[in-house]
Amino acid sequence: MDLEREFDRVVAADHRVEPRDWMPDGYRSTLIRQIAQHAHSEIIGMQPEGNWISRAPSLRRKAILLAKVQDEAGHGLYLYAAAETLGADRAELTEKLISGRQKYSSIFNYPTLTFADVGVIGWLVDGAAICNQVPLCRTSYGPYARAMIRVCKEESFHQRQGYELLMTMMGGTKQQRDLVQDAVNRWWWPSLMMFGPPDAESSNTEQSMHWRIKRHTNDELRQRFVDMSVPQAVKLGVTFPDPKLVWNDERGHYDFGEIDWAEFWRVVKGDGPCNAQRVAHRRQAHEDGAWVREAAAAYAAKKNSEAVA
Amino acid sequence: MDNAYDGLVEDGSEERHWAFGTGFTEALTGVDRAVPPLVDHDDLAAYCLMLGDDALVLAQRLAEWCSRAPELEEDVALANIALDLLGQARMLLTRAAEVEGVGRDEDELAYLRDEREFRNVRLAEIDCGPGPGGDFGTTIARLLVFSSWRLALFQRLTGSLDPVLSAAAAKGVKELAYHRDHAAQWVLRLAGGTEYSRERIVAGLALVWAYTEELYVTHPVEAALADAGVGVDPAALRAEVDDVLDTVLRAAGLDRPEVRQVAALAGQAGRDGVHTEAMGYLLAELQHVARSMPGAHW
Questions:
Q1: Which residues, including other chains, have CB under 8 Å from residue A226's CB and lie 6 or more apart?
Q2: Pfam families this protein is in (chain B) (predicted)?
Q3: pLDDT value at residue A207
């Protein structure tokens, strides 16, 4: 009981829980699930944008995009490492991803149809991710909080690169401007869904807030994202596909229309345009690489036994 | 907190340099860009294209591994190598465009030339995986041969009388030494890992070895620029590269592959714009968006 009281005190005082500290089983399992899903999202998230690396229309854009997708692999690595400090095993987590037992962010179950999608993903999807993730830099579990500081810095960079690409495209031809608006139309609502279900229906929020794993509710973060994005859209010269999006003086926030939660749940449950494709791609890469990982392990074992002998 | 990311921007300024991303374009800041006296501009432009195309085309191939590598660490490593080569390509194509002097830039050279105008060696363009033409073993085999050859070339090129080539080579040498080391370590692991991995690296080396003769054939442009102290005669690299490759193969307990070389066409190969059938598909993918939207800004 003393251990539990000490844990509660650390969390309530906004101090960090570290890997060797005692923690409730529920705290540990909630964190493992959340960090693993976050790591999986980074790894699956390589695919929609990776789809355009080979076709990026300038060498500078190609370099930026490749570096960005590479960063996502790096984020996945830090996050799997953070999960491992809680006793999880990366190989097991990967198995759970490729067998569909663990989820990743549903946003990556939508296809990237034109190069403008690369910019809109940077602006809106990375923007929404940052809104979700900045508070995690102060989350109660130390290794996760520290990983998130680096992740957020790089995400911020990606978001600005995405916005800069869109600015450049909006200054280009009519066809380019149309591509940007089309991509915004397709990604706006899925971006709002990234904050998760409404607070009233979010099963994990209350406990996670108590443990200071989460620091803001889904709806609070979603509102912040909408409020930030509207002036950016105006500056860019695009509109959001929501006739109910208007400033509310009384609330001091933008009002916005009803999110299609039926679609949200459909995609979460596996029925989005790319769910099967994304997991199959990851599984294929994992299976194709099995012989290479086995070779590396066998080689390391031989070297170790030689060193011992 | 009005803006979730304000707190993340350390310098707080509104400058635009963040969009450069990888800093490639800043690598040669301060380098004298005048062409040395008595150097033929057309030859120098053609030479920069050769070395630039080698890097661009292999970067395109290596980037195909992104999200498909055997493990995450390797995904990051192969993307790194592709980014290094892309950076080398950008410096060299920019130099080619500038020396050519008809108002083209790196992107016009990369995106608006046709297959017959590309000057890369065929080793860079063949499909070594993750496509059907190869696998991780073949990819590593090509990387070992290519980076050993290019490192030897770039080490000599640091002494070029052209200040841009010399500076680009000095930057590239550090990168290529890492690429070669990365490939060599994998050759050792695959050769000494499992029976299957040994078969794969042996098969990979045999496949890419058929394109090695071409690496040492001297094109007239290379001969002229080597004489002028600007370029490197690739024939002079053979002994050193052979030695490096033999060292790696010996450490891995592998024999040097004995395979028939893929023939040139009437004496012409990559440096003359004569490529394999894979090249057209590679360029179709690379160039499609840029070509389908003339006048667009990216």
A1: A192, A245, A253, A254, A256
A2: PaaA_PaaC (PF05138)
A3: 86
Residue-wise pLDDT tens digits, A16-55: 999 999 999 999 999 999 999 999 999 999 999 999 999 9
Chain A, 186 to 205: residues with Cβ < 8 Å from chain B are none
- Each residue's pLDDT tens digit, A50-71: 999 999 999 999 999 999 999 9
* Consecutive H or E run containing B199: helix B195-209
The distance of B134 to chain A (nearest Cα, Å) reads 12
Q: What is the pLDDT of residues A177-234, one digit of tens each?
A: 999 999 999 999 999 999 999 999 877 778 888 898 888 999 999 999 999 999 999 9
Inspect the interface and report whether the beta carbons of A289 and B70 lie closer than 8 Å.
yes
What residues in chain B have per-residue pLDDT under 50? 1-24
Chain A, residues 142-171, CB within 8 A of chain B, namely 152-153, 156-157, 159-161, 164-165, 168-169, 171
Which residues have C-beta within 8 Å of that of residue B99, sequence separation ≥ 6? B35, B41, B44, B45, B48
pLDDT for B242: 98
**Across the interface, do A46 and B66 touch by the CB < 8 Å criterion?**
yes
CATH number of A3-308: 1.20.1260.10
Q: Is residue B28 part of a domain?
A: no
Spatial CB neighbours of A37, under 8 Å, sequence gap ≥ 6:
A102, A103, A104, A105
CA distance A61 to chain B (A): 7
Looking up residue B211, the CATH number of its domain turns out to be 1.20.1260.10
In a domain, B26, yes or no: no
Q: Is the Cβ pair A66, B60 closer than 8 Å?
A: no
